[in-house]
Amino acid sequence: MFSNFIHDDFLLQSPAARRLYHEFAEPEPILDFHSHLPAADIANDHHFRDLSEVWLAGDHYKWRLMRANGIAERYCTGDASPFEKFQAWAKTLPSTLRNPIYHWTHLELKRYFGIDELLNEQTAKAIWEKANGLLNTSDFSARGILNKFKVKVVCTTDDPSDDLSHHQRINISETGFRMYPTFRPDQALSVNEPDKFNAWLSRLGQSSDTHIHSFITFLEVLKMRHDAFHAQGGRMSDHGLPYCYANPCTERQAAAIFDKVRSGTPASRDEHEQFASFLMLFFGHLDSEKGWTKQLHLGALRSVNTRKVRELGPDTGFDCIGDAPQAQALCSYMDLLERENALPRMVLYNVNPADNYVVAAAAGSFQDGITAGKIQYGSAWWFLDQKKGIESQLNALSNTGLLSRFIGMVTDSRSFMSFPRHEYFRRVLCNMLGREMEAGELPNDMELNRSMVRNICFENAKVFLGLDLPARP
After folding, report:
1. Is a pLDDT exceeding 90 seen at residue 2?
2. What Cα–Cα distance (Å) separates residue 157 from each residue in 52, 104, 177, 312?
3. To the nearest 10°, the Cα dihedral for 331, 332, 336, 338?
4. By CB atoms within 10 Å of each CB, which of 73, 255, 257, 473 scores lowest?
5. Is 80 exceeded by the pLDDT of residue 4?
6. Contacts of 275 (CB under 8 A, 6+ apart)
7. What's the order of all strands across the beta sheet hosting 182-183?
8. Domain end (from 117, 140, 163)
9. What's the rounded Cα separation, in Å, for the pair 55 and 72?
10. Exposure of 137 by Cβ count < 10 A (0-12 exposed, 13-18 middle, 19+ buried)?
């Protein structure tokens, strides 16, 4: 059954909002500076077998809702056939009304495949067949999708031990977009888990052809890998932390903890905090020296359902919002770097809505009067990446700082089907501004607001991040 749910003015509730979006936001290309897309899929121009692979595989957002709807695990992460998994998702979708996934799903069906029907059990087979027919064409390969959505830059998220050859291949051969690595050294902090830490250390050594026999060698190899990322065009780091670590210790103390863990003994909680604090300051200096931007993803409480995580592994939908105190630790961390004149540009993301104003206000305390918007309050993240969450983030940023300097949205996704999230964000942004223009809360000056919209959608990130972009056609 045809539906006009996703129409041209979806989410745009005033004439001013519609003009801001259609004339100024919609034409802007995409700079997706934080994603979890597999670099190999882009380098190899992967062709997707079917809608289940491109849309359901690895999507813990959908798995959580399917489980909540009484769908058995075999249809989420298990051995059900691709079409059976898709059918199970189609059965669940009508129960997701008011969840952002209902919006995302139909926006994605419309933008990728031109499908206007609402997805449910009755329409599933026809949608499956139409989408799969299109997926078999060159326009829907991994690179084809990036070009379809005018993605000029995509930044992957990479461990320091990762082989960066895929990025090199893309940036030599591809003229339509660039793909750059992001340095994500979370494993370097895992001294509370010796088996995991030592196995990762072996991979790290192999990546640099170096035997890591001491703490000094460990730091040298991390710097070598940071240099390697820079050589491949990387200009960003990223850290996923429950909260910032700002309990500094000396290099000698950190080395003693390192030796202890190398021998197979886990670091105590206090030792873990000290070691992580030392390394986070070390990483801050590396970023500052090279003019990089550091991203901090703060506040997630991960793998809370331990039985299911043992069965299915991490990143399968068993994480939640944490409520660790953020303000003191975040400000202390930035202050330690600031004291040493080593505070890099930063983007701060929080997952707990209670921390919106905490993080936004902290960002404002460390602006330097030189780099416009040096410390960014990042876009709504994870559980907050929906209409109300986006509006709340924009309000906190606007009320404490400069919305006009905001570097905009990211997909933060493992799925090639997620690029309409940029459109979703742009519609929410334009609707908010348009409503306030017509209410007299902002000047009814299209030129003034047009400039801000365009900058938030693309230009601010381009200037702020200093990434090499392909020339516009």
Report:
1. no
2. 23, 23, 17, 22
3. 20
4. 473
5. yes
6. 189, 191, 249, 254, 257, 258, 267
7. 182-183, 236-241, 293-298, 345-350, 375-377
8. 140
9. 18
10. exposed
The answer on pLDDT for 91 being more than 90 is: yes
The pair of three-digit structure tokens given for residue 114, joined into one six-digit string: 């031109």
Mean pLDDT over the full length of the chain:
96
Torsion angle, alpha carbons of 437, 441, 443, 445, to 10: -10
For the record, the structure tokens of 154 come out as 């995509």
Q: What is the pLDDT of residue 407?
A: 98
Spatial contact of 196 and 159, defined as CB atoms under 8 Å apart: no
377 near 401, Cβ under 8 Å?
yes
As a dihedral over the C-alpha atoms of residue 188, residue 189, residue 194, residue 197, rounded to 10 degrees, the angle is -20
- Number of domains forming the structure of the chain: 2
pTM greater than the 0.90 cutoff: yes
**225 and 136 share one domain:** no
- Please write the tens of the pLDDT for every residue from 191-247: 999 999 999 999 999 999 999 999 999 999 999 999 999 999 999 999 999 999 999
Rounded to whole angstroms, the Cα distance separating 431 from 460 reads 20
Determine contact, residues 324/345, Cβ cutoff 8 Å. Answer: no
Q: Which amino acid is at 12?
A: L
Supply the range of the domain harboring residue 209. Answer: 15-45+149-465
Backbone phi and psi for residue 342, each to the nearest 5 degrees, phi listed first: -130, 25
Evaluate whether residue 5 is within a structural domain: no
Indicate if the alpha-carbon torsion angle 269, 381, 235, 231 is positive or negative.
positive
Does residue 147 contact residue 470 with C-beta atoms inside 8 Å?
no
- Distance in angstroms (rounded) separating the CA atoms of residues 467 and 407: 13
Same domain, 116 and 186: no
Q: Provide the CA 117 distance to its chain's centre, in angstroms.
A: 29
